[in-house]
Structure formats: structure tokens, C-alpha cells
Design goal:
Blueprint lengths: L7 H14 L3 E3 L5 H18 L43 H8 L7 H12 L11 H11 L6 H10 L14 H11 L4 H12 L1 H5 L3 H8 L3 H12 L23 E6 L2 E6 L7 E3 L2 H11 L5 H41 L1 H6 L10 H8 L3 H10 L1 E4 L2 E4 L7 E3 L5 E3 H13 L9 H10 L6 H10 L12
Parallel strand pairs: 2-5
Antiparallel strand pairs: 1-4, 2-3, 5-6, 7-8
Helix pairs in contact: 2-12, 4-6, 7-8, 8-11, 12-13, 13-15, 15-16, 18-19
């Protein structure tokens, strides 16, 4: 079960770890398989008597498949490909980048230590979430540095807020945006944007544009230009640094679905089906045991050790095969259920489908299907998709048909995208429109779906 939930890259690391920890396992094709089979057959009788109490049968631990590769081995990953290990540039971390800039300021030893502590307090988004008083206390208790709120405020203003990228070290969004605006060149729109940030930030956030127009006695066109200046700013200045210390993520699809002559073809990424066999190291070890005229206790102990390693190797190879079979069976069932979508790419053709539907069809537990769906990706003609995106509950439309909630969300998204942004639709109005389209949904359900689509309320969707 643990192997099933691993995506391709994590699975490869797990294979590598197991091979490193168990010398009975080896990767690649087994060139000495036939020779080892003969040796183990000849040695079996001699070892079984001395190790009878453990029922040791070496043949049980060898891979005796009729074909060396898994029956469902795919060839969509060539051995000649060299992108298994993708290098990433080391570079500086975000905090190292900030710290290196402190050397450009004239600071006393204590000021430098306080500034360094402030840099260390900046999170990945570029903000300092602690209050000044808390920072003063932390410096005293953890660094034994006695300072004052005034000194910290001064260092924030004159040092930290001057660091690149612009906006880092702010305590909140308003302060970060102001720092960025004040770094820009003089412009009428920039001056107005600064005034809005300083004196009407709440109105701006809540999009109360009429109040802003009245407060500053400006035209709608002037406000539009100021808003454009603000929209160019980065609300998360820490994320703009290319050398951020986040680990780069790479999605490797576990499956691939192609359309060939109007039919769907499913393949499993061959990196999920590695060739593994018992290491040839045991060939020489068992030969030595067989040819020895006297079986010493040390030799017997060694064969016992071999048995333990072979047990672990056989279990792991079987687990990998079972994982591969489970992945294929599960994804094949999902593909059949959603064949209309995979053939067209039309989200509106996704059928209602829950984990239990697939579990019942393939005769497996719901938790097994969940492990496949939550962590695996499939490459389709329409892009790489997370498998759990194909699951959704159902509801009955006005025609009595079962439709997917994904279909309803897509229609809701389309309606909102086509609305008049000067007069965005409220949730109540959206519910009326969807009901007219044949989907009787309550207003609170509309609100839930809208939040799941990461769409704000009507007031926040308004534009000038």
C-alpha cells in the first residue's frame, strides 16, 4: 500500500534505497540468471538438510518468470534517455541573497546582528510576521542582544526595506506595496497610487471605487491609471527571487493515454516497472558453500544471512509487481468510465464518478483507489492531469439526468467569465441563471463551488 501511493519520482527513490540497503537486489537485466538457476537447483538438496528448520528453498527466492520483464512492461521510456536525474543549479538561497546585501550598508556590530536577525525572520513570501516588540524580546532571550523598538524600526526602514527584491521585510501587504511604489520613478499615477495605499487602503481592497473617487476628487480615468500601477506590484516579493530555497518540483506522469484510430490506449510509465533480480553476488557465495567439504558454522550463518536477504528481495519484487498491476487495473477502469472526456477533452463530458465506483468494479478497497487517485498524474492529449480531478459527485438536473458536479462548476465558471465586470453577478443571481440552464442549485451551493474555483464574491470581481 505504501508503494502504491508513491508517484513515479518518489518510487524511483524508493527502489534505489531498497537496492542500497539489500545487496540481494540488483537492477537491470540478469545476465547470469540461467547459471544461477542451475547452481541453486544443485545446491538446494545440500543446504535444505542443514537448514531444514527454516524450510530454506533457494529456488523460491529467484525470479522465475517466463519472461524477464514484467508482462505489462511498457516501452514509452527509452534506456537511452538521459533525463532520469535532472540537475538543479545550487545557487544562493533567498536568505543568503538578502544577507549578502547587508555588507553594502555601514553598520555597527550590533546593528549588523540585529539586521541579520531581521533577515532571518523574513518568510518565503518576503514578509516579517512578528511585531517589533516580539522581535526585541526574541533578540534578548535567544541572541542576548539588548535593543529597543526604535532601533529595530530604524533598521527596518533604512536597511531591510532597501534590500532587493523591493518590498521584502514588510509587516503586511500595505507596507510592502508602499515600499515598491516608492522605489518607482516619479509619475502622477504613482503619486496617486501611494496616496490610495496610505489613506484609502481598505477602500481599495474592498473595491469601493466610488468612495475613492469622492475622497480624492479624481476622475475614473485617473483612478484606472493608479490601479494599473498597483497591479504591476508583487504581493509576494519573496517569491520573485529565482534562487529561492524551495525545491523545484517536477511532475512525471505515471500513465499516458493516447488516441489511436479512435480508440484509447493506456500505458504505464516504464519507470514504474523496473527490472530487478537477485544479485549475482550470491552465485559465488553459494558455490563456495556447495564446494566446501566441511560446512563450518560461519558458512551456515552466511547462508542464513542469504536467506534473510532473499526473503526481503522476493517480497519487494513481488510488491513492485503488485503495485504495477494495481496501477494499471485502476487507471484502466477510470479511463473506461471517462472515455467520453479522454476522446474529446470536453470537461462537460466528465461523468459522475466516486472512488467506490472504481473500487467495486476492480474488486479492491476504496483506500487503494484513493492512493492511486490522490498522488498520480496521467498524460493526456489535453495536458497532464491529476487523476483525482476525474472524480466528482453527481446531482440530478431538471431532465432527471445524473450530471457531474465538475460539469456544473465548469458552467458556473463560464457564466462568471462572461458577466459584465462593472456589474458582477451575485450568488443569488448565479443560482437563478444555473436554474434556467437546468441545474437547480441553492445559493449556498453556488458559494461553495465558487470558492472551490477560487473565484471571489461579486464585489471583489468588480472592475472600473
Amino acid at each position: 500500500m505504501k508503494l502504491i501511493q508513491l508517484p513515479t519520482l518518489a518510487f524511483e527513490q524508493r527502489i534505489k534505497q531498497e537496492i542500497e540497503e539489500n545487496i540481494a537486489l540488483d537492477s537491470g537485466k540478469d545476465e547470469t540468471k540461467d547459471e544461477e538457476d542451475d547452481l541453486f537447483e544443485n545446491t538446494q538438496d545440500e543446504t535444505s538438510e542443514e537448514l531444514a528448520e527454516d524450510d530454506f528453498n533457494v529456488d523460491d527466492y529467484l525470479s522465475d518468470d517466463e519472461i524477464p520483464e514484467y508482462q505489462t512492461q511498457t516501452n514509452n521510456y527509452s534506456e537511452d534517455d538521459e533525463d532520469r536525474d535532472i540537475p538543479f543549479a545550487a545557487g544562493k538561497s533567498f536568505h543568503q541573497h538578502l544577507k549578502s546585501q547587508l555588507n553594502t550598508f555601514r553598520l555597527s556590530d550590533q546593528q549588523y546582528e540585529v539586521a541579520e536577525f531581521l533577515v532571518g525572520s523574513i518568510d518565503e513570501s518576503g514578509y516579517i510576521r512578528q511585531g517589533v516588540e516580539d522581535i526585541v524580546d526574541d533578540l534578548a532571550f535567544t541572541q542576548n542582544i539588548m535593543t529597543s523598538p526604535e532601533e529595530v524600526e530604524l533598521l527596518l526602514k533604512d536597511v531591510i526595506h532597501e534590500l532587493d527584491p523591493a518590498g521584502v521585510g514588510a509587516r503586511d501587504l500595505q507596507e510592502s506595496l508602499l515600499i515598491q511604489l516608492k522605489r518607482k520613478k516619479e509619475k502622477t499615477a504613482r503619486k496617486l497610487a501611494i496616496q490610495i495605499m496610505e489613506k484609502a487602503f481598505d477602500h481599495f481592497v474592498k473595491k469601493h471605487y466610488k468612495k475613492i473617487l469622492h475622497k480624492f476628487d479624481i476622475t475614473e480615468e485617473q483612478l484606472k491609471k493608479a490601479i494599473r500601477e498597483i497591479e504591476k506590484l508583487n504581493p509576494k516579493p519573496g517569491g520573485s527571487y529565482a534562487g529561492n530555497n524551495k525545491v523545484a518540483e517536477q511532475i512525471v506522469p505515471d500513465f499516458s493515454i493516447r488516441i489511436i484510430d479512435g480508440q484509447l490506449e493506456l500505458t504505464l510509465n516504464s519507470r514504474n516497472a523496473p527490472e530487478m533480480h537477485v544479485s549475482s553476488t550470491y552465485n559465488n557465495m553459494l558455490r563456495g558453500y556447495k564446494e566446501s567439504t566441511e560446512k563450518s558454522k560461519a558458512q551456515t550463518d552466511a547462508v542464513q544471512f542469504i536467506k534473510q536477504k532473499l526473503d526481503a528481495a522476493k517480497w519487494f519484487i513481488d510488491a513492485v509487481k503488485q503495485r504495477q498491476q494495481t496501477l494499471l487495473v485502476t487507471m484502466n477502469s477510470i479511463m473506461r468510465h471517462q472515455s467520453a472526456y479522454f476522446l474529446t477533452g470536453d470537461v462537460l463530458k466528465l461523468k459522475p464518478m466516486i472512488l467506490k465506483d472504481i473500487a467495486d468494479e476492480i474488486g479492491m478497497d476504496v483506500s487503494t483507489v484513493s492512493r492511486v487517485a490522490n498522488s498520480k498524474y496521467v498524460n493526456t492529449p489535453y495536458g497532464t492531469k491529476l487523476i483525482k480531478e476525474f472524480f466528482s459527485e453527481s446531482m440530478t438536473n431538471t431532465q432527471g439526468e445524473e450530471v457531474s458536479t465538475r460539469e456544473i462548476k465548469k458552467i458556473l465558471e463560464i457564466v462568471i467569465s462572461e458577466e459584465d465586470k462593472k456589474k458582477p453577478l451575485t450568488d443569488e443571481k448565479l443560482a437563478v441563471i444555473l436554474k434556467e440552464k437546468g441545474y437547480p442549485i441553492a445559493r449556498r451551493t453556488i458559494a461553495k463551488y465558487r470558492e472551490q474555483l477560487d473565484l471571489p464574491v461579486a464585489r471583489l470581481r468588480k472592475v472600473l
